[in-house]
Design goal:
homodimer, alpha/beta, ornithine cyclodeaminase, domain 1, Rossmann fold, 32% helix
Chain lengths: 357, 357
C-alpha cells in the first residue's frame, strides 16, 4: 500500500525530539559519504496572470541507506515579495483554492516502491527546528539556560521546543513586530512548554542577557544587530539573511547547515526583479565564505568542534534544506503511520508500472 | 480534483503525432528562454541486499509557461548491468512486486496545485520518439522513404511511428539479435503501420540503402558501424552510446537533444563499478564536444540548419530526457483525461496544505 498522509498525521506522529534523534546519526551517515543529498533546484517563471508574482517549482532529493528510504520533496509555489513594515518578505500565495502545495514522496530503496506521499508543511518546521536544535547541541554553551527568540510565526514554536530539548533552558523571551502576535505566541508557548515565555517590547531587550538567540522569521533582511552581541552567546538562524555579515564576522565560530548554500537555479529569461533581488541577498552573504565553514555533518561527526570556550560567540546558519532531511523525517513518520494505521491506503500499483523506460 | 492516471490511460490519450505537434512549439519556447528545464539528477547508492545492484532516485523538472504546467518526473529504480550477448545492458529490476517505479507529477503554474500523477513508462517512449521524430523532420532528406531500425524492443515501435509521421516512408526493415523477437516485432508493426516491416538477418543488411537509420536499443555499446555510412543517410539514436565517435566524426552534421549531456550526479562514496562504467561510456563520447553541437531547440527555432545537401550525412543523438518534455506530454494527457473523464479522481486537498513552510 502507498499511504497518503496529511499534516495532521505528520503532526501527530513526528515530534521534534524524535526527529532530532533520527537526524543526528543520519547526518553522520552523510559525513561518511554513505547518505546522498541532491541540492535543491528552483525552476522559476513569471506568473501568467498575477503581476509581480512568479511560479516556482522546487525539488530536492535524498537517500538514507541505513533507513532504506529515498525522498523527493517538491514545492509548487506562487510567490510574491511584499514589504511588511520595514522588511521585505517573501509571501507564498495560497493560490490552490486557498491552500499551498508542498509534497514529500517517500520511496523504498529495497524495492523502489512509493511508500508514502505527504505534505511538507508540518515536517518542514520540525526538520528546520531539528537542524537548529542539533546546532545548539553542538555549539551553544553547555549551561545555556537563557533563551531569546526573534520571530513568533510558524517556525518559532518548534524552534523553542528544539532549543529546550538541546539545553537546560529556564528563562525564555520573545519578540516580533506585532504586539498582538507576540503576546499570543508567548501565552501559547508558555502553556505548551510548561515554563514562562515572556513577550518583550523590542528586539534589543529581548536578546539582552540571552545565552542563545533564535532568529525564526521569514525576513529577507537582517533582524539581529551586531552590537547586541554579548560574550558566550550562540546565534541560531533559519535563513542566511537574518544575520548580517557584521554579525557573522564578529563570531568566533560560524557553522552552516550545508555547504550548498544556494539552490541550483533554472529561471525563465523574462522573470522580473523579485527573485533576482532575493538571490542578491544570498550572494551578499558570500562576503563570508560559506564553503570554508564547517557544516552540520562536520559538527555531528566530530570533524570540527562547535565551540572552544564558554565566552566564545557562535552562530549556526540554517542556509538551505535538504531532501535528505525529508527522507529521515519521512521514514520516522511512515514507520509510525503503518504501526498506527493512519492515512489513506492506496493500491501501490496506482504508482508503479508494468513497463519501464 | 487530482487525477491518478495509468499507463493504459496515457496510451489511450497520447499519440506520437499529437506529442510531436505539442513538442515543436514548446522547444521553440525553450529556445526563446521562456520555458524552463531542470537537468536530470541521479542520486545513487549501493543496494542494501542485492549484490552488484544499485538504487537510483532520479528526478528532472520542467515548466512550460504557455501550457500553464510544470512537471517533476521521478524514477525510483533498482538497477544492475548484466552482459547480454556481447553487449552490456542496463537492467532495471522490477523489485516493486514485479513492477517498476516511474512517476510524472503535473502541476498548474496558475494555482500551484497538482493536476495529475501518472506513470512515466508509456509517456517516456512517446516523448523519446517525438524528439527523434522532430530530429528527423529537421535533419533527414525531405524525400527519405527508406527506413531501417536496429532494435525491436519497447522503444522501437514508437520510433517507427514518429519516423513515418516525419517523412513519406515506403520501405521499412528491422533487426535485433533475437530472430524470434525481430520477427514478432515486424509482424506487429506491419499491422500497426499498414505497410510491410521486413525482419533482416543481420544489422548490415538491415541498414543498407536506408535513408534513415533508427537505433532504438538499450545497449550501452555502439550498435552501428561507421563503415556502414552511405551518402545522405540520417542516423537517429536514443542513447549516446549507440553511435560511436568514429560514426559521429564522419557525419556532416550532428545535433543532440539537449546540451546537458550528463545528468547531475549525486553518488554514495561506496557505490561500485557499474554506474561508474556507464558514466565512462558517456564520458568517452565527449571526444565529440556535445556542448558545441546544435540541440533540438536550435533546430526547431531555425537558429541552426539540420541539413545542407541531400548527400550530407546527419545524426541526431537523443542524449538525455528533459522534465520539460514530461510537462508538455503531461499537459496533453491531462487535458484529454479531464475531457474524457478518465483516471481516479482524488480530492486535491489530499495533496495541498493549509500551512506553508
Amino acid at each position: 500500500m502507498t499511504l497518503i498522509l496529511s499534516n495532521d498525521d505528520v503532526g501527530r506522529l513526528l515530534t521534534v525530539e524524535d526527529c532530532m534523534a533520527a537526524m543526528e546519526p543520519a547526518y553522520r551517515e552523510l559525513a561518511q559519504g554513505r547518505g546522498v543529498s541532491r541540492t535543491r533546484s528552483d525552476s522559476i517563471v513569471a506568473h501568467r496572470t498575477m503581476k509581480d508574482a512568479v511560479y516556482g517549482l522546487k525539488s530536492m532529493d535524498g537517500i538514507v541507506p541505513s533507513l532504506g528510504v529515498g525522498a523527493v520533496r517538491i514545492n509548487s509555489d506562487v510567490i510574491s515579495w511584499p514589504k511588511v513594515g520595514n522588511t521585505q518578505r517573501r509571501k507564498k500565495i495560497p493560490a490552490a483554492d486557498g491552500r499551498w502545495v508542498g509534497l514529500v514522496l517517500l520511496f523504498s530503496t529495497d524495492t523502489g516502491e512509493p511508500l508514502a506521499i505527504m505534505p511538507d508543511g508540518v515536517m518542514q518546521r520540525i526538520r528546520v527546528a531539528s537542524a537548529n536544535g542539533i546546532g545548539i547541541k553542538q555549539m551553544a554553551r553547555a549551561d545555556a539556560s537563557d533563551l531569546a527568540i526573534i520571530g513568533t510565526g510558524w517556525q518559532a514554536g518548534t524552534q523553542l521546543i528544539a532549543a529546550c530539548a538541546a539545553r537546560p533552558i529556564e528563562r525564555i523571551r520573545c519578540w516580533s513586530p506585532s504586539t498582538e502576535r507576540r503576546t499570543k505566541f508567548a501565552a501559547e508557548m508558555s502553556e505548551q512548554l510548561g515554563r514562562a515565555v515572556e513577550p518583550m517590547p523590542d528586539a534589543e531587550s529581548c536578546v539582552k542577557g540571552a545565552h542563545i538567540v533564535l532568529c525564526a522569521t521569514s525576513s529577507i533582511d537582517p533582524v539581529y544587530a551586531s552590537h547586541w552581541i554579548e560574550p558566550g552567546v550562540h546565534l541560531s538562524s533559519i535563513k542566511p539573511a537574518e544575520l548580517d555579515n557584521a554579525t557573522l564576522k564578529r563570531c568566533d565560530r560560524v557553522a552552516v547547515h550545508v555547504h550548498e548554500g544556494q539552490p541550483l537555479s533554472f529561471v525563465e529569461k523574462g522573470v522580473d526583479a523579485a527573485e533576482t533581488e532575493l538571490k542578491k541577498t544570498w550572494a551578499e552573504q558570500e562576503g563570508i565564505d560559506f564553503a570554508k565553514l564547517p557544516d552540520i555533518t562536520d559538527l555531528v561527526s566530530g570533524k570540527q568542534k562547535g565551540r572552544d570556550k564558554p565566552e566564545d560567540v557562535t552562530a549556526f546558519v540554517n542556509n538551505i534544506g535538504l531532501g535528505y532531511q525529508f527522507a529521515v523525517a519521512g521514514a520516522v513518520v511512515h514507520k509510525k503511520a503503518v504501526e498506527q494505521g493512519l492515512g489513506h491506503n492506496l493500491p501501490t500499483d496506482w504508482f508503479t508500472e508494468d513497463v519501464h523506460p
